[in-house]
Design a protein that fits this description.
alpha/beta, D-Maltodextrin-Binding Protein, domain 2, 465 residues, signal, 6-stranded mixed sheet
Length: 465
């Protein structure tokens, strides 16, 4: 066992560049999560139509497509895939079209490339990265959205969510699914037994981790077998510590990964990643744990799980649902703590992109841009929509409702997942690029300089110099 120690206040200056509105968004998120209870306010706002439990007229008019058929490709599996199929079933019911879900593999751009080369592209693909949308446009695969879909986006989405679906000024993507990726979930019984409290700063997080460890439970579960979970850890630390301006520059590779700000963030991460006793299974175990398992092992085993906390986005609720834990009572959540002056607000998402410019494909994009489609999946849980006209009462529990409200309240001022903005070769390919380098860093958190050199080499190759 090693004792975690650090000098309070040594990493405070960089965060001062954070804009006030970002601080307000983070503050709103913190207040929302700590103020909410765990109850299922199922009776709330029932007068609000489809989001409140009673039926209402559809908000979007769709064409009749009897006899039409189309394919939708996405990497979603399990409950997430099953819930999305219910949305597609509603589209079928309203239009008469037949929709087939096509399971895709990561990286989806490679999957689409093989399908297109074989002359069998899907009609619509759900792309998880702005970088992937740009690649699809650059390759000539993606088709601009039609007037009806663009109109629906304008009515339901903030300018920021519209803009990240644009390439060259044209709208290509409908961000159907969003993620609040600045959350840490915890086993409430573990915290109660340990006498641990929800932290608001990185220093307090380290104290909470020590308190949980001293109670006999390993503090953190990390799904290191999926490299994207590690990029998310880095992005939250970097955004809070270095500030949004540097975050934006690093995302565009306008500054190098050998920059001192990256060194500072990696050094901070090592305060947890370098404590082998703080990780379920140690670094080796973490690297063999996939994301779903990192969640379930935190909420299985009562008050003696394999770990007390797990970091990831709102979608963790889907995996918690596979255990006996109840969100809001057994499984609770707090915002990712502030490393600099303010807590980070990092978002991600999946966008519908049309690959075949047909009436049916454009109609599906229009439907996915409507509150009708998002409300269906919101009711099923484990899903978050950036659509501002999806009422909070659509979400199945108070925790998720507050997360959704905070995301919409942030408006245009959020930072999209950095690795998702990068070329897929760097930020979105298993076993390569940033995913692989951070997995190596988790294995050896002392080698900060080596990790920086590797990150810069991989980024330079992917960004083209």
């Amino acid at each position: 066992m090693r004792t975690t120690s650090r000098t309070i206040g040594t990493r405070r200056t960089a965060g001062k560049t954070t804009r006030a509105v970002t601080a307000l968004a983070a503050g709103a998120l913190a207040f929302s999560l700590t103020a909410c209870g765990g109850g299922d306010d199922g009776d709330k706002d029932k007068e609000d139509g489809p989001s409140g439990g009673t039926e209402a007229a559809p908000s979007v008019t769709l064409p009749k497509l009897d006899g039409a058929s189309l394919e939708v490709a996405a990497v979603w599996t399990g409950t997430e895939q099953a819930n999305f199929k219910k949305v597609l079933a509603e589209f079928e019911k309203r239009t008469g079209a037949k929709v087939t879900f096509v399971p895709a593999q990561d990286p989806i751009i490679n999957f689409l490339g093989s399908k297109i080369a074989g002359g069998q592209p899907p009609d619509v693909a759900m792309l998880p990265q702005p970088g992937a949308i740009k690649q699809a446009v650059d390759k000539g695969w993606a088709k601009p959205l039609g007037a009806e879909a663009v109109k629906e986006l304008g009515e339901n989405y903030s300018r920021g969510w519209q803009d990240i679906g644009k390439v060259g000024g044209k709208q290509y993507g409908v961000y159907y699914k969003a993620a609040n990726k600045s959350l840490i979930w915890y086993n409430a019984q573990v915290f109660e037994n340990a006498g641990a409290s929800e932290p608001t700063t990185w220093d307090e997080l380290l104290t909470t981790a020590r308190t949980v460890y001293d109670s006999g439970v390993t503090p953190f579960s990390i799904g290191g077998a999926d490299g994207w979970t590690l990029t998310d850890w880095f992005e939250n630390v970097y955004l809070s510590q270095a500030g949004p301006e540097k975050y934006d520059r690093l995302a565009k590779h306008e500054i190098k990964w050998t920059d001192p700000s990256v060194k500072e963030a990696l050094t901070t991460l090592a305060e947890i990643w370098g404590e082998k006793d703080y990780l379920a299974g140690g670094a080796r175990g973490a690297l063999q744990t996939e994301f779903p398992g990192s969640v379930t092992q935190t909420f299985t085993g009562g008050d003696q799980p394999k770990a007390g906390m797990v970091y990831e986005g709102d979608f963790v609720q889907v995996n918690i649902g596979e255990t006996e834990a109840e969100v809001g009572t057994d499984a609770k959540v707090f915002p990712f703590p502030a490393v600099g002056d303010t807590a980070p607000v990092v978002s991600g998402g999946d966008a519908a992109v049309v690959l075949k410019d047909s009436k049916a494909a454009q109609a599906l994009a229009t439907f996915l841009a409507s509150p009708d489609a998002a409300t269906i999946q919101a009711k099923l849980g484990g899903y978050l929509s950036p659509n501002k006209n999806v009422k909070a009462s659509a979400y199945p529990n108070d925790v998720q409702r507050k997360i959704a409200e905070a995301l919409v309240a942030a408006g245009d001022d959020f930072r999209f997942d950095m690795s998702d903005q990068a070329p897929q070769a760097f930020g979105g390919t298993p076993g390569k690029g940033e995913w692989k380098v951070l997995q190596d860093f988790l294995k050896n958190p002392k080698d900060v300089a080596g990790a920086q050199r590797k990150l810069e080499a991989e980024a330079a190759a992917a960004y083209g110099g």
